[in-house]
Amino acid sequence: MKTFHRPLFWAVVGVPNIISALYFCFIASAVYVSTASLIVYKPGQSAQSLSSMLSGAGGGNSAEGAYIVKDYIGSWDEYRNVARAINLPLQYGQGDVVSRFGGLKTFFRKSDITLWHYYQSHVNVAIDQNSGIISLSVEGYSPTIATAIAEQVLQDSIRHIDSMNRQQEADYMKNALERRTSVEEKLKFDEAALAAYRIATGIHDPSKLYASNLVLLNALSEQKTRDAAQLDAIARATPNNPVVQNLRAAIGAVQAKIKSTEFAGRALSRGAARYEELTVARDNDIALLHEVEAAVEQAQLNATKNKYYLNIISAPSRPHAPELPRRLEWMMGVLLGTLVLWGLLR
Description:
The chain is an alpha+beta fold. It folds into 3 domains: 1-28 and 325-346; 30-170 and 312-318; 171-304, Helix Hairpins, CATH 1.10.287. The chain is 68% helix and 8% strand. The protein has helices at residues 7-27, 50-55, 63-73, 76-85, 88-92, 112-122, 143-201, 206-237, 243-305, 327-345, and strands spanning 32-41, 123-127, 134-140, 309-314. A 4-stranded antiparallel β-sheet has the order 2-3-1-4. α7 (143-201) packs antiparallel against α9. The longest helix has 63 residues, at 243-305. Keywords: Membrane, Transmembrane, Transmembrane helix.
């Protein structure tokens, strides 16, 4: 009994436990907790290894995506999104003088940064390392506000993941699409140059005409050779034969045709070179366009493989009873702590 009359006992044990009992029994505000669970998938990580299956890890879940969601939920941007939809100072200021926003817990400060940190302490995210499931718990001084904040956070997380996917797809596709546009413009230019050449020359394909001209030139040369041989044989046998004059005239006509064909061939040769240059450029750009199209398809595939997909496993719950504070646990903890301290000091 003498123990209870000692000032040290009351200073270390008695007064703290009386304050603890008064606070947790009569003052502490009830706190409601809304919970939800979700998972983030990434198709590019869908392959399961033997070790992952044995450990119970999901094949398509993305730990990287889960941590992205966790960081986003606690970020300043998400806090501002929630604050625009819900009056956080009003809702968080409804608690008791110790735990509420603007109370003893925040040292009576009410700045935006203080409210952000208060929001972070009341919105908790946990990640299961094996399954990758994200558990969200949101605390509030009423079941309605706890559920409303949890729903807002989930919808914002989905929008954030969708926005990341769109940005990632745009980054993957940008270079490929720009390259395809450049090649398509070059191909249009090549086709226009080829059409202008055909209009200017009146020849669709000079290479074919040049080939047929060579065939004609060879035929004329053979004809000239045969006529010359026949002329030589007749002139030797019968110099005054009238056929000799006819053969000489025929040889002259063939020679004239050979000269005109050679002249036309030189002109066709220059035109065929230009035509070949234009067609090679066009064909190269067509082949390059096929390669670029394949690159665009590959970029689309890469973008799809690296997308994150957020699935809600359980929607935010609407609590029917307060879950916090754990009054008895706190009071027992204070009692045990003060008794240990008193035992060390006496």
